[in-house]
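User: As part of a screening pipeline, I want to sanity-check one entry by hand. Below is the sequence and the SMILES for flavin mononucleotide. Please return the complex as structure tokens so I can compare it with the automated output.
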Amino acid sequence: MGLFDKITGKDAAKGTSVPRGLVVYDSKSGNSEKMALAIGQGMQQNGVETKVKRVDKATVNDLMDVDAVVLGSPTYFANMTTKMKDFIDKSIKIYPDKLADKVGAAFTACDGVGGDLTVLAFLQAMLLHRMVVIGPESGGFGVVQIGDVDDKCLADCQAFGNRIAAFTVALEAGKEKLQVTG
Ligand SMILES: Cc1cc2nc3c(=O)[nH]c(=O)nc-3n(C[C@H](O)[C@H](O)[C@H](O)COP(=O)(O)O)c2cc1C
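Assistant: Here is the complex for your manual check:
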């Protein structure tokens, strides 16, 4: 029995809809891609059916189909890449309410300067979309990897994915009671 079944008392195997997630990322030399995959794996492990898509393959409509959205990219001059910014700018067509009350989280790979700012830039856009943003249990705004991805980073990303999924499942199960949209 998965986390969703435990919380809702429903049986996902019998066709009850399971929460869905999407990780959208950009990456040139592979670090952010490894992080995206590890976060996606962590979400999947904890009861959220998750797809991981490179930003070129993702559309803004994809965001509307899921309950949790994770965005990440390398840090370029203390910000996200142009492709990720362009993707976010395209989401104006579903602003302000289509992503409301969905879970959001972010991550970045960098060499040591400005990673937090990149993550915060993602979170700012999510908050403007009225999303519910989640940071890692260990603190900070999102997972910020300095240097090439190693085993510790992958474990941190997986744990972050587990946490994002746990909140997604709990929020989806409780939305009726909260009487919120989304
Ligand atoms: C155009 C450009 C700008 C960058 N700017 C920063 C920066 O502001 N701060 C930083 O710490 N690293 C910076 N980096 C380094 C990358 O963020 C880092 O190498 C990252 O791990 C690359 O991720 P990727 O493997 O997913 O492409 C920059 C790299 C490039 C190519």
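Points to compare against the pipeline: Residues 3-173 form a domain with the Rossmann fold fold (CATH 3.40.50.360). The chain is about 40% helix and 20% strand.
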